[in-house]
Amino acid sequence: MEEAASYEEPRWPPSAEQSEPQPATSASNAAPASARLPRRRLLGLAGIGLGAAGLVVGGVALEQFWQHSHSTSAQADQQLIGHLLRRAGFGAGPEELALYRNLGFTAAVDRLLHYQQVPDDEMEQRLAALKLNLDRPQDQQRWWLLRMAWTQRPLLEKMTLFWHGVLTSSFRKVGGPRFYRRMIIQNEFLREHAFDTFDSILLGITSDPAMLFYLDLTKSTRNSPNENYARELMELFTIGLGHYTQQDVTEGAAALSGWHVRGFSSYYNPATHSDRIKHFLGHSGNLDYRDVITILANHPAAPWFLARKLFSFFVYENPSEEDLQPLVTAYQQSNHNIGAVMRALLLSPQFASAKAYRSRLKSPVEFAVGAYRALGLQDDGSFLPQFTTLMGQTLFDPPNVGGWPGDKVSAFWLNSGTWMTRLNYVDLLLRRGLGRGVVHPLNLQSLIEKNRIASPEAFVDYFAAFLLDGQLAGDRRDQVVSYLTTPATGRQESVTFANGKSYPLSRVRGALYLLLASPEYQLN
Length: 524
Fold this sequence. Notes:
mainly alpha, 2 domains
């Protein structure tokens, strides 16, 4: 009998050399004494509000924030491309942002969707050089997180993440440590078919070794079909509650029987398939798994069910039928092609609306990968898996078959503990990087020289441009600049700007910390 999975949760990374601002340790003492006032003013007074009116940014309702910030077409374009690259990817640094901005919005969407035309060999080479052991869950997580951080095909990885949260499996139930690699096989399938027809995706996941084991289809026999997969296939994957009965579960389970797993492969044995007449969702006959998938993908509820999941993940929560109609139409007119549905979603007025702009909290993966990617860090990301887990999202291990609650309601991602972890992540990211052993802090002096940043004000504006879409209220910009230019105690390294003036490295680094810890940056 295959053994149960055992896995030790990752521990907090080792401490690094201290510098301002220090890692947060509690909600009441989130900064060192030397940085406490600026950070409280920036993070406390301008915190994220979650009330009846919805998300609030810096005390300003999103609708007002959007209208105020769209004072020029150039600003609107900058925000819209930034919004696109956060939602259809994981954010971007200045070079990538400029590339997509030069394309224009529609062409930028097409580039993201037609990812095959964008080479990604460098990312594959960098991953191969790490020689990760993909039989270990933590190396699997690191492999995927770095793919997201290094890829030139961000929407492909974002779609793979979406499917992983919908068609869920976990390494904790794939047959034990010898078979952890089944999760990588599933991940590669979801990536390869991310924009395929819904029918093909469902057929593939039904025969996926990890899924077969995770939802017990391997236990199904012709005389005693297991109902777990049949139930979740309808309830969570395709049509939702209210559109099927217990009889449909029983009959669907019989039709799905016949699948088995051997090692890292699956196979269908007709001799173990129940060949009796089944009555499933109004269809009768000697139905098998192909019939079940065809019936479900063509069910009237399927496009609405799938459209709601996609819209809630990529646009905003609680969409109306009017919001979903273009996605449903695209599904029906394209023979269920997910690429067509995603194009309809990304080009919809709702996606570019004030209601969608920064309307969702970043998931732990979006937050951790986004900061790492935007800053262009070059270390090996050893601590990425620990931090996303401590923030509440462990890749290849959703909490249950329903996926992550935060994918549906993003407010679930944030509490006092995960907020402190986000602050500590930013601190470690800037002070020493995320590599194990070798310290790779962000080289701010080199960055300033490369971009000819002439002053503290220009420094804040440079990072706010791609981290915050250039939207940083004047008084808060002044506070960050004031923090940067305040003398620091003790001897320490300094950073010299293009105007010849030098400032303490801790203050320059702390100013960037404050931007990454700002309420706006927590919102996607």
